[in-house]
Amino acid sequence: MPRPRPTRHRQHTHSPVRRMSRRLRWTDRMAELRRLDMRRTLPFPREDVFDLVADVERYPDYLPGWQAARILERDGTSLVVEQELGGFGIRQRFNTRAQLERPTLITIEGDQAPFRSLHQTWTFNALGERSTELRFQVEYALRGRLLSRLVDRLCQHVFRETMEAFAQRARTRLR
């Protein structure tokens, strides 16, 4: 009668399918879209508020997290902008394309690392002659596994602080 073979107990080993499954779950979580939607009423004319938001090269002067912003191309109402965000010990540089529809709308798109997708919309609604409802919507998904959690934390911080920074800038510049 053949002797039974001894079994080896392998601790902490998983099948390739299980490892792949865990990896996919992590990737799906990091690739999910993040959304933010904020509104603010500002006591300034719509055109002035639009010009303030459209002046992207001044962002590093007052927006938290913005290290640099430079217009690479200008074609009528379209801009290609190189931007650099920094904080939490990291820096990320990327390009975006902005479409300016003065004085009502600015849309910004990007898909360069660290973003799988980035879509921002600034809407400027006149509330009389000297008041504007400013709406900021952002939707983004990050790519890559290495820094995704830190970059996500940085993006959430920067995007949440953006509206207040613009309101403060408007109060000091547009009085």
Structure summary:
With 175 residues, the chain is an alpha+beta fold.
Layout of secondary structure:
Blueprint (H helix, E strand, L loop, with lengths): L15 H16 L2 E9 L3 H9 L4 H4 L3 E10 L2 E10 L2 E12 L3 E6 L4 E12 L5 E11 L5 H26 L2
Antiparallel strand pairs: 1-7, 2-3, 3-4, 4-5, 5-6, 6-7
CATH homologous superfamily, by name? START domain
What's the architecture, going by CATH? 2-Layer Sandwich
Oligomer: single chain
Give the rounded overall mean pLDDT: 84
Number of domains: 1
Structural class: alpha+beta
Distance between the termini: 97 Å
Biggest β-sheet description: 7 strands, antiparallel
CATH fold-level assignment? Alpha-D-Glucose-1,6-Bisphosphate, Chain A, domain 4
User: What is the alpha-carbon Rg in Å?
Assistant: 23 Å
Pattern of helices and strands: HEHHEEEEEEH
How much of the sequence lies in strands comes to 35-45%
Q: What would the principal axes of the Cα set say about the shape?
A: elongated
The number of distinct β-strands equals: 7
> DSSP helix count?
4
Are there runs of 5+ residues with pLDDT below 50, and where? 15-30
Helix content: 25-40%
Which strand order spans the largest sheet, edge to edge or round the barrel? 1-7-6-5-4-3-2
CATH top level assignment: Alpha Beta
